[in-house]
Amino acid sequence: KEGAYMSVDHFAERLSPSGNIQNIADTDSLLRRERSPYKISSLIRRQATTLDFHDGEPILRRSLNWIDILCFGVSSTFGAGIFVLSGIVAAEVTGPSIVISYLVAGIASLISALSFSEFSVRIPLSGSAYTFTYATLGELVAWMVGWNLVMEYSLGAAAVSKAWAGAITNISGDRIGNYFGIWVPAKGSAIIELSPLAALLIISCSAFLFLGGTKMSARFNMIMAGLNVGLIIFVTVVGAFCVNTANWNNFFPGGLSGVLKGAGRIFFSYIGFDFVTSLAGEVKKPEKQLPIGVVGTLVIAIFLYVFPALVLTGMVSQEELKSIESYPFALAFVTGGHHFKWAKIIVSIGSITVMTATTLCTLMGQPRILWQISRDGLLWKEFGKLNRRRVPYWGVIVTGSFSAILAFLFNLNQLSSMISVGSLMTFTLVNAGVISLRYTDAPSLRGPPLTPMLFITFVGCILVGISFRLEMEFWGYMVCAIPYFTCLMILLWMRPKYTNPDRKVFRVPFVPVLPTLGMLINTVMICQDEWSVLYCVIWALIGLS
User: Which residues, in sequence order, are CB contacts of 414 under 8 Å at separation 6+?
Assistant: First the structure.
């Protein structure tokens, strides 16, 4: 079809009149020439979802089952998002209503998780959101999503390792930092904060990934996931005995705007679930096991975020949180008249272990995405090379180095805000992509062109987000929501009819209502943080250049 990649057989004919491929390297070279990004037509072409471009070449080893996927998801999700960021956001923005912020962010993530699950079943390739949008929204959007994922995973690893270094310093009572100069905040700066220890953690995790391979990492994460869940349950149960309900009296100090801004900030806490879809090329039965891993990770995360956050804000007041926001759960046990020093020690040591596993998982995803982008001809072919353990080693080296530099230089608060906005934009495009995938599957589609409709829907979502940011009157919300609801009605009218849907294949329910709702919630959260949006726009312009 016009705008789509030609088939493998067509490549064979171009290479040899008889259709016989003599040299797989020549085929790869021809593939790259045909898919040159330096053509106007390349901006809208889409990747065929059924092609296997890697016949005859080393591919990633399919060695993971649903238990491995679920453990990777749990390990990559729980970390700085709950043990550090919850204290910062509750102290500075939301107060006790951080519980509602976690619910809002969790619902938005769950909707996006359904879209990720359908994509991962229909397109079981490494690359996560990059591959999904390439197949549905075209090469330009896919490149921007891939570029966004570089920021998401690199900043994610840097942010968690930064929190890990802070935990080490806290346990040592600053003795390590004072003796070795490991924790050296830059005075007078809200952005720069030097931390050699954080960079050292990333380098160590990258070396483990390089030498250990996927299966060894999976075994390690299975142990870490158990410790992860156990530690959060411990915090919730023991902390419940320290709750003072008077701390919940002023439950919404920032109002609705504060809840939405907090949800946008802590969205970083949920981004681990999309990491497991980047392992699709290494799952034994992706059509059955990936949806279990993706949705299962989100359901567990929502429960294990909401209840600890409720307990934390009941243990200490918002004012007390401001003095312990950098390490809230451990210090809450010895603040506000509480004297549970033994609990503080357990939480401190446990959180260090948990954040080590989170850093490892975050670093695992990015090299797989770079590997897929390279195989599609949009990055240097070195990123497509695998070592003897089938690990994309160039991606590990580059990702580890970039993340280590970020972890060494930048402040955790700044990193987490940028991650959240970048992730929300990626998830918004994935939700739009699942509508495109479902509608273009239909034998015939009535109504206006789909892509402009999705763009107008996104603009409508932005208008709603701006109305919440400006805290308009009720009529203002309604006026700004008119474009969104108009597009939703048209999409419902355009919805194709399936006579014999394959019920064995996972599908997002209530399309297009759920995906457009996911787009709306994500965009509203994006619009609450102008500075992080500005940083992400600058990053996007660098990617376009």
Answer: 190, 191
Supply 138's token pair: 């075209």
Please state, in angstroms and rounded to a whole number, the distance separating the CA atoms of residues 126 and 306. 31
Q: Which tokens belong to 289? A: 């096991």
Neighbours of 192 (CB within 10 A): 14
Per DSSP, the three-state class of 192 is: strand
- Residue 390 contacts residue 58 (beta carbons within 8 Å): yes
Q: What is the distance between the terminal CA atoms of the chain, rounded to a whole angstrom?
A: 29
Residue type for position 95: G
Residue 435 three-state SS: helix
Sign of CA dihedral 21, 23, 24, 29: negative
Which residues make beta-bridge pairs with 124? none
Per-residue DSSP letter, 49: T
Is the pTM above the cut of 0.85?
no
User: In the numeric block, which tokens belong to residue 177?
Assistant: 């930092």
Cα-based distances in Å from 300 to 292, 297, 539? 12, 5, 32
Q: Which residues are bridge partners to 64 per DSSP?
A: 283
| Structure confidence by residue, pLDDT tens digits, 246-305 | 999 999 998 888 999 899 888 878 877 777 776 776 778 777 788 888 888 888 889 889
As to burial, measured by CB atoms within 10 angstroms (0-12 exposed, 13-18 middle, 19+ buried), residue 42 is middle
φ, ψ dihedrals at 123, nearest 5°:
-130, 75
What DSSP string describes 232-263?
HHHHHHHHHTT--GGGGSS--TTHHHHHHHHH
Handedness of CA 437, 438, 442, 446 (dihedral sign): negative
Contact 511/434 with Cβ under 8 angstroms? yes
Instruction: Give 325-351 pLDDT, tens digit per residue.
Output: 777 888 889 887 788 889 988 888 888
Q: Under 8 Å CB-to-CB from 429, ≥6 apart: which residues?
A: 129, 133, 137, 141, 145
Residue with tokens 């670093």: 363
In the three-class reduction of DSSP (H, G, I as helix; E, B as strand; rest coil), residue 185 is classed as strand
Among 132, 165, 124, smallest CA distance to 148 is for: 132
Alpha-carbon gap, residue 97 to 327, rounded angstroms: 19
CA 343/CA 528 separation, integer angstroms: 36
Report the alpha-carbon angle 284-287-290, nearest 5: 75
Question: Under a CB-based contact definition with an 8 Å cutoff, are residues 221 and 365 in contact?
Answer: no
